[in-house]
Design a protein that fits this description.
10-stranded mixed β-sheet, 3-stranded antiparallel β-sheet, alpha/beta, globular, 404 residues
Length: 404
């Protein structure tokens, strides 16, 4: 479903992050506006402006006080080439649809960051010839939208490609040097230990290139997590990885660390409720972390009809909530009190153990829409299949419909 960052010295970078310094992008960027404080870019939740039933950002701003949005995702063209597109299909050079979203947000006093990469599609670092070419492609995005912030979302399968990660990290360093004050975040997969082998290799690549972004963020979901305690444990472990990799003390590592969560039901059936978000928010602010964000605003609303716990959706959370409940935690991280609203319903995920479909059979033939049960979950076939074990995957034949 997803799929979720000129080198400053450590002390200077920490000072800028703590002060929420206003970033200044290169003056030649067309359409550039006054930047927000860095804390807002650090709090910007992800929004897909062209897919997953995009919500109205103006309505979210009015309801929550949110000012910054993380627009996702910029990729290489599906047909090949080293030029930026939205989702692999809509060229940035000729875009008007996303520009309209940006204009709406800025007209209300807000701003955007753009996220590159993500879980699906081909990334520019995979196809551009080197770091300079990769940076040139991303510079088109910065210039087009007058950006003051950018996010490098480096995860599967790109971060398993050494050459691609070298291009992405090199490009991030070039952009940071060529756009003074640009807020740069780097987001990667999270594990219980903080991040996995490929995430650690990415950090080592950044160290070897002398690149220090505003933060490195992990995504502690889709990896066997269960609520806030498992997430804060991963953040603690990731802090230790940052210390050992870069030679930072604990406080400096936290000042370069970020959290990127997933609201509601994750791709693998984990649940993260409003209470979990508050716990992680308290951890992030209590440790002076640099970033707190989530995937995604497209999902920050209750499913209709209410389907609390039964499935993972790109357009709703599958937990009981008021619209934009989770966005308000980002607003709090930015240091602003959200507008008051009606009380949040108590999350009520569908309990396991009820409503199982007929058991999956390795010999049976299934066609699109057929439902089965396997490992105490119900599954729906997306197309014809036989002898393919039901497993959670964006690209697999089976759609996980939740516990039964």
């Amino acid at each position: 479903m997803r799929r979720l960052r000129a080198c400053l010295g450590a002390a200077a970078a920490v000072g800028l992050a703590a002060a929420g310094t206003t970033a200044l992008v290169a003056g030649s960027a067309s359409g550039a506006t006054s930047a927000l404080g860095n804390r807002w870019y650090a709090a910007a939740p992800y929004l897909m402006p062209l897919d997953n039933d995009p919500p109205d950002p103006a309505a979210i701003m009015d309801a929550t006080g949110l000012k910054a949005f993380q627009l996702a995702f910029v990729l290489a063209p599906n047909g090949g080439g080293c030029s930026p597109t939205w989702g692999g299909t809509a060229a940035v050079s000729s875009d008007t649809a996303v520009q309209s979203v940006v204009n709406t947000i800025r007209a209300k006093g807000g701003d955007v960051s753009v996220s590159i990469g993500g879980y699906g599609g081909t990334k520019l670092g995979q196809v551009c010839s080197d770091a300079a070419a990769t940076a040139a492609a991303y510079q088109q995005v910065i210039t087009k939208y007058g950006l003051h912030a950018i996010d490098f979302d480096l995860e599967e399968p790109e971060y398993e490609n050494t050459a691609a990660i070298k291009n992405e990290i090199g490009a991030a360093k070039i952009l940071q040097q060529n756009n003074p004050g640009l807020y740069v975040s780097v987001t990667t997969a999270g594990t219980a230990d903080g991040t996995g082998w490929f995430g650690k290799q990415m950090l080592l690549e950044a160290k070897s290139q002398g690149f220090t972004p505003n933060n490195f963020s992990i995504m502690p979901f889709d990896g066997g997590f269960s609520g806030a305690a498992s997430q804060t444990g991963a953040l603690t472990n990731f802090n230790q990885i940052l210390q050992s990799t870069f030679g930072w003390d604990q406080a400096t590592a936290y000042a370069h660390e970020g959290f990127s969560g997933m609201n509601g039901r994750s791709d693998t059936g984990e649940f993260f409720t409003q209470t979990d978000f508050q716990t992680v928010l308290d951890y992030a602010t209590g440790h002076n972390m640099d970033r707190f964000t989530f995937w995604s605003l497209n999902r920050d609303r209750q499913c209709t009809p209410a389907d609390n716990g039964g499935r993972t959706s790109g357009t709703c959370s599958s937990v009981a909530q008021n619209s934009w409940d989770f966005a308000k935690y980002s607003v709090k991280f930015a240091g602003v009190t959200p507008p008051s609203s009606t009380p949040t319903p108590t999350p009520t995920p569908t309990p396991p153990g009820t409503g199982c479909k007929p058991a999956w059979s390795s010999t049976a033939v299934y066609t699109a829409g057929n439902e089965v049960s396997y490992n105490n979950h119900n599954w729906k076939a997306k197309w014809w299949t036989q002898n393919e074990t039901p497993v959670a995957s964006d690209w697999g034949v089976w759609q996980d419909e939740g516990a039964c």
